[in-house]
Amino acid sequence: MKFHVTAMGCQMNVGDGDWLTRALVSRGFTPAREDQAELFILFTCSVREKPEQKVASELGRIADRHGANPRAFVAVGGCVAQQCGTALWRRFPMVRLVFGTDGLAGAPAALARLADEPGLRLSLLDFTETYPERDQAWPDDRLPPKAFVSIMQGCDNFCAYCIVPFVRGRQKSRGLPAVLAEVEALAARGVREVTLLGQNVNSYGLDRAGDGTSFARLLDAVAAVPGIARIRFTTSHPKDLSDDVIARFAALPELCPALHLPVQSGSDAVLARMGRGYDRAAYRRLVDKLRQARPDIALTTDLIVGFPGETEADFRLTLDLVRDVGFDSGFSFMYGDRPATASERMEPKIAQDVKSARLAELQALLDERLAASLAAQVGRTTEVLIEGQSRREGPDGPSWRGRDPGGRIVNIALPGPGDVVGRFVRARIRQAKKHSLIGEAEADHD
Ligand code: SAM
Ligand code: SF4
Ligand code: F3S
After folding, report:
1. Which of 101, 126, 315, 355 is the most buried (most CB within 10 A)?
2. Ligand closest to CA 79
3. In this structure, are strands 152-153 and 146-150 parallel, antiparallel, or unpaired?
4. Is the pLDDT of residue 445 over 60?
5. Is the predicted pLDDT of residue 339 greater than 60, yes or no?
6. Nearest to 432, CA basis, from 395, 397, 406
7. CA distance 218 to 215
8. Closest to 358 in 3D by CA, of 306, 314, 321
9. Is 305 a pocket residue for ligand 1 (Cβ < 6 Å)?
10. Which residues have C-beta within 8 Å of that of residue 311, sequence separation ≥ 6?
11. Element (H, E) at 282
């Protein structure tokens, strides 16, 4: 059966979608473009209202395009599935499987059954006590050079604004041997860069499900896997970023000089109401330590504007922090109430027009920061891991697209034919575009 996966929301969903793709291929399913597929798998997001609405519009669109095919059906996973459960069946008759985060491990078997039994519907929505291990029976084919590896599920932090702990459940770390087995299996299939995923990777191993391995020790172990040349991780909570992990930025050459460290606000009053567990000064100290360990580290962040009670002065403190830290880029979001969260009941709510104006001002500043960060790379020599062909065609042949160690996109023209995906190319940065860099190959090595 031909299937198509769409992953919305965060990288956790992208990683889960990649795993399910590999698991389905090993069961004889075939990945296909959306217009040719009969099984549609949506990994959904409910962190804000907009992504949640996107799920309904996507399901409506699939029903319009494929509803006439009696074999066609939909599986919905991720956070909206966990939140809405089997109510999705009633609204969208094409949906025959709903699965939550902990149900993912059982999804390949459930999908195989559904393909054979057209009258059936299934739900996999229970939370489990431990990390539900997923089978690693993968095809031997070469994989793309970059892969995500989930190291934990759920979150225990209950930041006041956030729905994630309600839809992803309590934090459950995966055991070290299972993580290493997956990284080794990926490396054997050509993967050179892994991104370790969790809502709060810094507290890896510290929950009941964990085997006592700290995140810093996990980094050491992953770095030692032959073939793995680059490691990234996301997301980091500042309150749990230990000195041991910071030291790894200096000690492990495989650990990329890039860190996404969501700060959310520059105001101590707002941070306290958000329940983030750190203040501005503590965050600033972390930045200093990180830069001491790795002066070239690219720092990115998440910011929320218009949290209940946020004053103009609070917002100015956020702008000030962005300038002060000199982030390389960041994501900014307008606060929105989410069901069951603590801030849903907090007052006063900030008016929509005030939130919009603050978001626009913050986004303009973050755009400036991104432009400055990209411009600063011009003239530097860097190493690019080639991920695929670029949409741009260079004058001397096909152009390729990859990332530098800081995670910036670099387009490079490489002379001659041949597939260079998965190779490292030394490049000099010639030009900065709005969201990417243009490089020139110096010499290539692998
Ligand atoms: N676990 C990560 C962390 O601790 O930062 C990521 C959490 S969430 C999946 C990604 C981002 O969405 C958050 O960092 C936050 O900026 C934003 N976000 C979460 N809830 C929100 C809400 N109710 N309104 C606006 N933005 C929100
Ligand atoms: Fe949400 Fe906070 Fe957990 Fe991140 S750490 S997922 S923002 S509750
Ligand atoms: Fe969205 Fe769930 Fe991720 S709410 S951001 S898909 S953890």
Report:
1. 101
2. 3
3. unpaired
4. no
5. yes
6. 406
7. 5
8. 306
9. no
10. none
11. helix 280-293
Q: How many other CB atoms are there within 10 angstroms of residue 169's CB atom?
A: 19
Alpha-carbon span 283 to 262, nearest angstrom = 10
Q: What is the residue extent of each domain of the chain?
A: 2-124, 136-256, 381-444
Pairing of strands 122-124, 172-173: unpaired
Q: What is the enclosing helix (H) or strand (E) of 293?
A: helix 280-293
Q: What one-character DSSP code corresponds to residue 383?
A: E
In this structure, are residues 76 and 97 in contact, taking their beta carbons and an 8 Å threshold? yes
Residue nearest atom 6 of ligand 3, based on CA coordinates: 45
Read off the pLDDT of each residue in 240-256 and give the average, rounded to a whole number: 98
Q: Is the Cβ–Cβ distance between 151 and 196 less than 8 Å? A: yes
Q: Which residues contact 186 (CB under 8 A, 6 or more apart)?
A: 143, 147, 149, 194
**pLDDT tier at 327, thresholds 50, 70, 90:** very high
- From 159, 278, 343, give the residue whose CB has the most ligand 2 atoms within 8 Å, as the site to mutate: 159
Residue with CA at minimum distance from ligand 1 atom 13 = 302
Q: Establish whether residue 278 lines the binding site of ligand 1, counting it when its CB lies within 6 angstroms of any ligand atom.
A: no
Q: Taking 60 as the threshold, does the pLDDT of residue 199 lie above it?
A: yes
Percent over 90 (pLDDT), the chain: 87
The one-letter code for the residue type at 78 is: G
DSSP SS3 for 39: strand
pLDDT of residue 392: 67
The predicted pLDDT at position 443 comes to: 64
Strands of 211-297 (E only): list them: 230-234, 258-260
Least confident of 121-135, 188-202, 376-390: 121-135
Provide residues with CB under 6 Å of ligand 3.
9-10, 12-13, 45-47, 78-79, 163-164, 167-168
Pocket of ligand 2 (CB under 6 A): 155, 157-159, 162, 164-165, 199-200, 237
Query: pLDDT tens digit string along 33-48?
Result: 999 999 999 999 999 9
Strand-pair category, 172-173 with 152-153: antiparallel
Class of residue 202 by CB neighbours under 10 A (exposed 0-12, middle 13-18, buried 19+): buried
Average pLDDT over residues 161-184: 95
For the cut 60, the answer to whether the pLDDT of residue 24 exceeds it is yes
The architecture that CATH gives domain 136-256 is 2-Layer Sandwich (3.30)
CATH superfamily of 2-124: Methylthiotransferase, N-terminal domain (3.40.50.12160)
On whether the CB atoms of residues 133 and 178 are closer than 8 A, the answer is yes
Closest residue to atom 2 of ligand 2, CA basis: 159
**381-444: what CATH class?**
mainly beta
- How much is the pTM? 0.95
Q: Rounded to the nearest whole angstrom, what is the distance from the C-alpha of residue 156 to the centroid of ligand 2?
A: 8
